[in-house]
Protein backbone atom coordinates (compact mmCIF):
# COMPACT_ATOMS: atom_id res chain seq x y z
CA UNK A 1 0.00 0.00 0.00
CA UNK A 2 2.90 2.35 0.78
CA UNK A 3 4.28 1.96 -2.78
CA UNK A 4 0.84 2.73 -4.19
CA UNK A 5 0.55 5.94 -2.11
CA UNK A 6 4.05 7.06 -3.13
CA UNK A 7 3.17 6.42 -6.78
CA UNK A 8 0.05 8.58 -6.52
CA UNK A 9 2.02 11.34 -4.82
CA UNK A 10 4.65 11.20 -7.58
CA UNK A 11 1.92 11.33 -10.22
CA UNK A 12 0.34 14.39 -8.56
CA UNK A 13 3.75 16.07 -8.25
CA UNK A 14 4.40 15.39 -11.94
CA UNK A 15 1.06 16.85 -12.99
CA UNK A 16 1.71 19.89 -10.79
CA UNK A 17 5.14 20.39 -12.38
CA UNK A 18 3.77 20.14 -15.93
CA UNK A 19 0.67 22.31 -15.53
CA UNK A 20 1.72 24.85 -12.92
CA UNK A 21 5.48 25.22 -13.06
CA UNK A 22 6.01 24.94 -16.81
CA UNK A 23 6.61 28.24 -18.65
CA UNK A 24 3.43 29.69 -20.16
CA UNK A 25 1.10 27.72 -17.90
CA UNK A 26 -1.32 29.12 -15.39
CA UNK A 27 0.41 30.71 -12.44
CA UNK A 28 3.81 31.05 -14.10
CA UNK A 29 3.47 33.60 -16.88
CA UNK A 30 6.68 35.40 -17.60
CA UNK A 31 6.21 39.00 -16.45
CA UNK A 32 8.67 40.13 -19.14
CA UNK A 33 6.10 39.13 -21.77
CA UNK A 34 3.46 41.46 -20.33
CA UNK A 35 3.06 45.22 -20.65
CA UNK A 36 3.79 47.13 -17.46
CA UNK A 37 4.08 50.72 -16.33
CA UNK A 38 7.03 52.42 -18.00
CA UNK A 39 7.00 50.21 -21.12
CA UNK A 40 6.87 51.84 -24.54
CA UNK A 41 4.10 49.97 -26.35
CA UNK A 42 2.35 49.98 -29.71
CA UNK A 43 -1.33 49.10 -29.95
CA UNK A 44 -4.04 49.02 -32.55
CA UNK A 45 -7.43 50.05 -31.22
CA UNK A 46 -11.01 50.79 -32.17
CA UNK A 47 -13.09 53.03 -29.93
CA UNK A 48 -16.89 52.92 -29.93
CA UNK A 49 -19.79 54.56 -28.11
CA UNK A 50 -22.36 52.45 -26.27
CA UNK A 51 -24.53 52.40 -29.41
CA UNK A 52 -21.67 50.78 -31.40
CA UNK A 53 -20.72 53.86 -33.42
CA UNK A 54 -16.96 53.99 -34.03
CA UNK A 55 -15.45 57.33 -32.97
CA UNK A 56 -11.78 56.50 -33.60
CA UNK A 57 -9.57 53.66 -34.83
CA UNK A 58 -5.96 53.00 -35.73
CA UNK A 59 -6.90 50.05 -37.95
CA UNK A 60 -5.61 50.49 -41.48
CA UNK A 61 -2.92 52.87 -40.25
CA UNK A 62 0.05 52.98 -37.93
CA UNK A 63 -0.39 51.61 -34.40
CA UNK A 64 -0.58 54.07 -31.53
CA UNK A 65 2.68 54.32 -29.55
CA UNK A 66 2.78 55.48 -25.94
CA UNK A 67 4.48 54.87 -22.60
CA UNK A 68 2.27 52.90 -20.22
CA UNK A 69 1.58 54.98 -17.12
CA UNK A 70 3.18 58.06 -18.71
CA UNK A 71 0.02 60.18 -18.57
CA UNK A 72 -0.30 60.22 -22.37
CA UNK A 73 -3.52 58.20 -22.45
CA UNK A 74 -6.83 58.33 -20.63
CA UNK A 75 -6.52 56.44 -17.33
CA UNK A 76 -8.83 53.56 -18.27
CA UNK A 77 -7.00 52.87 -21.53
CA UNK A 78 -3.63 52.93 -19.77
CA UNK A 79 -4.86 50.51 -17.10
CA UNK A 80 -6.34 48.16 -19.72
CA UNK A 81 -2.97 47.67 -21.44
CA UNK A 82 -1.17 46.71 -18.22
CA UNK A 83 -0.72 42.92 -18.15
CA UNK A 84 -1.42 42.39 -21.85
CA UNK A 85 0.86 40.19 -23.98
CA UNK A 86 2.00 40.86 -27.53
CA UNK A 87 -0.71 39.67 -29.91
CA UNK A 88 -3.40 39.74 -27.23
CA UNK A 89 -6.68 41.50 -28.00
CA UNK A 90 -8.89 42.83 -25.24
CA UNK A 91 -12.25 44.61 -25.17
CA UNK A 92 -12.66 47.08 -22.32
CA UNK A 93 -15.50 49.44 -21.39
CA UNK A 94 -14.18 52.63 -19.83
CA UNK A 95 -16.58 54.77 -17.78
CA UNK A 96 -16.51 58.53 -18.38
CA UNK A 97 -14.64 59.20 -15.11
CA UNK A 98 -11.75 57.00 -16.36
CA UNK A 99 -11.94 58.48 -19.88
CA UNK A 100 -12.41 62.22 -20.54
CA UNK A 101 -14.32 63.00 -17.36
CA UNK A 102 -17.86 64.22 -16.84
CA UNK A 103 -19.42 66.90 -19.03
CA UNK A 104 -19.12 70.23 -17.19
CA UNK A 105 -21.68 72.95 -17.93
CA UNK A 106 -19.29 75.54 -16.43
CA UNK A 107 -16.99 74.95 -19.42
CA UNK A 108 -19.62 76.33 -21.81
CA UNK A 109 -19.17 80.06 -22.44
CA UNK A 110 -21.35 82.60 -24.24
CA UNK A 111 -19.36 85.61 -25.40
CA UNK A 112 -19.32 88.46 -27.88
CA UNK A 113 -17.67 87.31 -31.15
CA UNK A 114 -15.92 90.69 -31.36
CA UNK A 115 -13.72 89.54 -28.48
CA UNK A 116 -12.41 86.59 -30.50
CA UNK A 117 -9.75 86.97 -33.18
CA UNK A 118 -11.53 86.32 -36.48
CA UNK A 119 -14.87 86.29 -34.64
CA UNK A 120 -16.74 87.72 -37.64
CA UNK A 121 -15.90 84.58 -39.66
CA UNK A 122 -16.67 81.89 -37.08
CA UNK A 123 -18.77 78.86 -37.99
CA UNK A 124 -20.20 76.10 -35.80
CA UNK A 125 -17.51 73.47 -35.21
CA UNK A 126 -14.56 75.89 -35.40
CA UNK A 127 -11.83 75.43 -32.82
CA UNK A 128 -10.96 78.55 -30.81
CA UNK A 129 -8.82 79.43 -27.80
CA UNK A 130 -10.51 80.82 -24.70
CA UNK A 131 -8.38 82.99 -22.43
CA UNK A 132 -9.28 82.53 -18.78
CA UNK A 133 -9.08 85.21 -16.08
CA UNK A 134 -5.71 83.82 -14.93
CA UNK A 135 -4.27 84.22 -18.45
CA UNK A 136 -4.32 80.53 -19.39
CA UNK A 137 -5.73 79.65 -22.81
CA UNK A 138 -7.88 76.55 -23.22
CA UNK A 139 -9.23 75.08 -26.47
CA UNK A 140 -12.92 75.13 -27.22
CA UNK A 141 -15.23 74.61 -30.14
CA UNK A 142 -18.00 76.84 -31.40
CA UNK A 143 -21.38 75.18 -30.79
CA UNK A 144 -23.79 78.03 -31.58
CA UNK A 145 -23.76 81.43 -33.25
CA UNK A 146 -26.48 84.03 -32.90
CA UNK A 147 -26.50 87.81 -33.43
CA UNK A 148 -23.93 89.29 -31.04
CA UNK A 149 -23.22 85.97 -29.28
CA UNK A 150 -21.13 82.90 -29.83
CA UNK A 151 -21.32 79.78 -27.64
CA UNK A 152 -18.04 77.98 -27.04
CA UNK A 153 -17.78 74.56 -25.38
CA UNK A 154 -14.41 73.87 -23.76
CA UNK A 155 -15.31 70.30 -22.74
CA UNK A 156 -13.45 67.53 -24.54
CA UNK A 157 -15.75 66.26 -27.32
CA UNK A 158 -15.89 62.85 -25.57
CA UNK A 159 -16.51 64.24 -22.06
CA UNK A 160 -19.39 62.50 -20.29
CA UNK A 161 -19.20 59.46 -22.58
CA UNK A 162 -18.61 55.87 -21.51
CA UNK A 163 -16.32 54.38 -24.15
CA UNK A 164 -15.51 50.88 -25.35
CA UNK A 165 -12.14 50.01 -26.85
CA UNK A 166 -10.95 46.89 -28.61
CA UNK A 167 -7.18 46.94 -28.00
CA UNK A 168 -4.56 44.74 -29.66
CA UNK A 169 -1.04 44.89 -28.22
CA UNK A 170 1.34 44.91 -31.19
CA UNK A 171 4.72 45.57 -29.57
CA UNK A 172 6.44 46.12 -26.24
CA UNK A 173 9.54 48.23 -26.79
TrEMBL record:
Subcellular location: Cytoplasm
Predominant location: cytoplasm
PROSITE patterns documented for this protein: FKBP_PPIASE
Keyword Methyltransferase: no
GO process annotations (BP): protein refolding
UniProt entry tagged with the keyword Cytoplasm: yes
GO molecular function, one term: peptidyl-prolyl cis-trans isomerase activity
Reaction(s) catalysed by this chain's protein: [protein]-peptidylproline (omega=180) = [protein]-peptidylproline (omega=0)
Keywords: Chaperone, Cytoplasm, Isomerase, Rotamase
InterPro entries in the cross-refs: PPIase_dom_sf, PPIase_FKBP_dom
PANTHER family in the cross-refs: FKBP-TYPE PEPTIDYL-PROLYL CIS-TRANS ISOMERASE SLYD (PTHR47861)
Family per record: Belongs to the FKBP-type PPIase family.
Protein name listed in UniProt: Peptidyl-prolyl cis-trans isomerase
UniProt source species: Methanoculleus thermophilus
Taxonomic placement: Archaea, Methanobacteriati, Methanobacteriota, Stenosarchaea group, Methanomicrobia
